[in-house]
Amino acid sequence: MTGFVERHPIWSLIILLIMAFLAWLIFAVWPPGLEEAIGRKKVFLSAVFNGITLGGLYFLVASGFTLIFGLMRNVNLAHGSLYLFGGYVGYGISAATGSWILAFIAAFIVVAIIGVLLQLLVFRRMEGQDLRQTMVTIGLSIVFADLMLWAFGGDFYQIQTPAWLIGPVQLPLMTAMKSSGEAVFLQYPLVRLVIFCGSVVIGILMWLALNRTRVGMIVRAGVDDREILAATGVQIQLVFVLVFAFGAGLAGIAGVVGGTFQSISPGEDTRFLLASLVVVIVGGMGSIPGAALGAIIIGLAEQLGSVYIPTYAIVVTFLIMVLVLALRPQGLLARR
Amino acid sequence: MSLIQEARTRESMLARGATAPPATWSVTEQPWGWALAALLLIMPLIANGFFLIEIFGTTLILGTIALSLMFLAGYGGMVSLMQLTIAGFAGYMVAVFGVSGNANISLGWPWWLATPMALVLAVLFGTLGGALAVRTEGIYTIMITLAIGAAFYYFTNQNWAIFNGHTGINTIATPHFLGINWRTDIAFYYLILVVAALCYFAVLYLSRAPFGLALQGVRDNPRRMAALGFNVNAHRIAAYAFAALIAGLGGVLQVWNYRQISPGSVAVERCIDILIVAVVGGITRPVGPYIGAFIFVILRTFALDFLVKVGLDGNRFRLLIGLGFLAIVFWSSDGVIGLYERWRRRGQQKDAPPRSGGHGHG
User: Fold this and answer.
1) In terms of CA atoms, which chain B residue is nearest residue A284?
2) What Cα–Cα distance (Å) separates residue B295 from each residue in B30, B34, B43, B49, B288?
3) Is A293 a member of any domain?
4) Distance (Å) from the alpha carbon of B17 to chain A's nearest alpha carbon
5) The domain containing residue A79 runs over which residues?
6) Residue B29: its pLDDT value, please?
7) Does residue A34 carry a pLDDT above 90?
8) Residues of the domain holding B68
């Protein structure tokens, strides 16, 4: 971080100024002129919070994707299908038992098992053949999508939010000042905040596991040089299976999250596959902090875009991708 | 790039074994090619309107769009998933500049002005997308072009001023000239046939022209080509531009065929369909996409009846396509062409003494 500041003082200053301006937008009471120009602060704050929580969901999906890519160099284009399947499993479990937590555990385990099967039956057979793996996962995603359409139909499913998470919570952020001088605070759904905190915790745990534990060391070594790592006696295939299982399991969890605060239906698999593609392209392939940064940027761009420039919201996301590709083709936080 | 390289090495192995050079045009050298050409020419005598347009016309259109992907993937080593997006863009432009039922959007230009305009814009779109995609390699190219395709799909869904949102543009006028309505079945079939043949032979010619050879050099070893003084990225972008022209032609024909266009025509699934068509047919020869398109169209048209007849749910046709695609990718690195050549080679090996080694992929 300090290295970046020393090398790019002007960029650091610009980023700092932008962040300070954003902080001012979030915490200050807006002057009337600004409210006239771009609308009420409540709308803006809701969009920001929606964007950040959506970013949390994107992070859950994209981090598994980027982890699998970083270690095994295979682009799992069936990742969106794993997400959708996790959502359906979570819905089934939560409808049957009524337990939200159980839905997470079941979705993680079931989708992780599918990930293990994928790794053993498909990816191990074609190691090092990127393009072929990509094609096979495209084929698999078509097959999975149709099987799921067959099994679950075209309906929308929403996973029941547990009672203790229903309802809004008051945040210590002012949206406006009443004429009497009384402050109006932002109300925001509790469940989205909890889920966002959950994904932050998962992200931090992942970072710690990767950077502070022996398994994490092995995984990082595998990212750098698989052959030498295998030559030192590490059972690389076992590491592959475990990482694949974990990445797939994360997609499963994300499915439950998505099913709780949005809904799950056919087509969501492509949507989230594309979202994770864009997130990892922006953040940098194979980098967990990159996935986090990319997820927040894309989530914010999508939500703010859909509030302020509804017809061109998707173009904003796309322009961010183009800009990153033009300036830093390897992604914002890639090491290369 | 293993899939392409693998197919390529195997093909060069075959070429070494073969005695005759592949591009001779006499009837005795290429009996199947001439028979097929003759069959396509007299097709209107054999097939009725449904088969002529719904099967053969659609096959040729789809094959032409997939041909642009084959050109990029087979000769350039770049798998672009945005070819259908370019085709759809050209179709939209025909609708926007030409005459359609949505008078508030269409500018009402005559077809001979609207069509070239659409093609120019499509080439521009493809070149820009290509310029973006060549900044990356291999699997990254797939992801970026897929993202471009998806962005265009969502954009057409959201934009009402030009693309008329999710309803799309309907009753698009088709060309009338020389006193012929070119949308009547037989005239339209010949129009498609001529365009498809032009594209096919253009790709065939270009693959042996200096540009195509340099492009293949770039595919096999970009660093060496750069060291030899070739501008690698310029060749790649030029390939994207040429592919965009082919895809654009396919898109114009497509929009004349259906006479309407909507975001559904440029959805992500359709983009992937083009990849399936090209890969199932084979991406090392220009004829592959047309074979793939024929199989795809036959499946799409008759799978429902077939599945119902076998006692299964007719809606499972995408499952059938997906499984077929998986099987092809699993067992053959070069689609149906690869399977056919392996089968032919096996036939030859029965006569010749068995060779050690064998095929190294599985």
Assistant:
1) B140
2) 22, 21, 18, 19, 11
3) yes
4) 26
5) 46-327
6) 64
7) no
8) 40-269
